[in-house]
Amino acid sequence: MKIYSVFLGLTLGLLVCGGLYWYGFTGKTPPAGTYDWKRVEGSKNIIPVAIIGSGPAGLSAALYTSRAHLHTVVFQGPQAGGQLMSTSEVENWPGMGKKQGPEIIKAVQEQAQHFGAVLVNESIKKVDFSVWPYQLVTSEDSQVHALSVIISTGAFPERLKDVPGEVEHWGKGVTACAICDAAFFKDKDVVVVGGGDSAAEQALQLTAYARHITLLVRGDKMRASVAMQDRLKKFDYIKIRYNTSITEIEGDGSRVTGIKLKTAQGSDHMPIDGVFLAIGHKPNTELFKGQIAFTPLGYIAHSCRTQETSQEGVFAAGDVSDERYRQAAVASGDGVKAALDAERFLQRIGFDEIFAKKIERKLYDPVVATNLIEITAIESMDQFKSVVLESKVPVIIDFYTKFCSSCLQIMPYIQAIGTQLKDKLVCVKVDIEKMAELKDRYRVTTVPYFVVIKDGLVVGRYNDVMTKREFFDFASRFITE
Ligand SMILES: Cc1cc2nc3c(=O)[nH]c(=O)nc-3n(C[C@H](O)[C@H](O)[C@H](O)COP(=O)(O)OP(=O)(O)OC[C@H]3O[C@@H](n4cnc5c(N)ncnc54)[C@H](O)[C@@H]3O)c2cc1C
Fold first, then answer.
1. pLDDT tens digits along 347-368
2. 191 in Cβ contact with 276 (< 8 Å)
3. Does domain 174-279 have CATH number 3.40.50.460?
4. Ligand 1, atom nearest to 90 Cα
5. Which CATH class is domain 376-476?
6. Prediction pTM value
7. Mutate to test the pocket of ligand 1, among 63, 64, 83 (most ligand atoms within 8 A of CB)
């Protein structure tokens, strides 16, 4: 029986791997005009290794390629540092004991930068893998030419499907990031939707704030690890309801007031202040549609033994290509493999130190602004009155929390634009945990949240992450020459 099981396992493994190989890699395409070095020499903005995404996968890859003396640029994307930036305790990152997610990321960032990796606060908005060097367009509209590419764009949280009230209350009581938004739910009643580790993690993050936390689990048991379930049991104000799903989210458009439920017994209603979604992730692959092969579930297909995708010279690592494990250490390991694969690929096609020297002056070197003006932190109502209400020019208030990774990621943009538009506009920041009075006064329901004040009055609002260019366009609207 045991031998039979092993045989069956091996056969299935081979079939799956073989199927994947067939699916993505038959006729693996070398790009058009393959490896035309003259063309590279004639280009500018060249990157030997371009990494799209800056979670554990992208950063680990960057550490390896930059240590191998390959000029490496990491496009950090909308969430610099990736999902771990919104994770409180991480206990399973090898060799580190119990750590905060952002601490782990900071350590890897510094290690990669130590070897020369360049981390850029930009996203990639377009790729063309049909020509080599591969063409990438950044959110700042820079055209770059990559000799090899590592894709590590991770995954993003799934939203509820066809549940009335979810879309209109997104960011107004419905969220997928407890660590960002928990502070808005002090002494409030909330539900967390889901039964896996993410749901348990979000519930635990809420314990410091919420009065009652109810986990809504669609099935009759949780999928979360035993260790996580044990941690939940320590809190008597965390309850779990099985065989329960949300059918409607109620509210007045500015905040959530209740939810309708489908239960094993029929239906139910709960008055509630917040809904935290933890129902899985979708691989972040939109950008690569039509450019490389995906698995049937929409993840980037890669070879069983390496991180090679269906496109020569393009590699995938981490959650974006991992249907099964989705763990930081696994993503990191994938990143290391992708880096070694990229290094081997570049060697194979003839990239060497002599050529590296030739293109030294043509490497992509994003301009990093200098002499930036600090963004003033508002820490008292008197300061608010003098700096904001009495300002002669429009003021953009950036409401944030120090745990919100996307808030921290856009700060450099705000600082750069604030410097660029100085004398015409002022940018200030408000930590909602320190200045709850301002949070309530301006009805701030999520972070990041921008409020624009002119002559003491609100003239604009925006409550989502923006690229640098979007923030510039937003800010420019309020300037009167
Ligand atoms: C609440 C929570 C708790 C977790 N706890 C743990 C834990 O305790 N232990 C553990 O091992 N794992 C944990 N995980 C899982 C772990 O965080 C992920 O497996 C890991 O972060 C995946 O790494 P990644 O590099 O593949 O992708 P991600 O971390 O998802 O990073 C993706 C990156 O891609 C970037 N990006 C996206 N689009 C673009 C674009 N167009 N251009 C440029 N960049 C782009 C993003 O900005 C981001 O930097 C947790 C996850 C969550 C959500």
1. 999 999 999 999 999 999 776 5
2. yes
3. no
4. 8
5. alpha beta
6. 0.74
7. 83
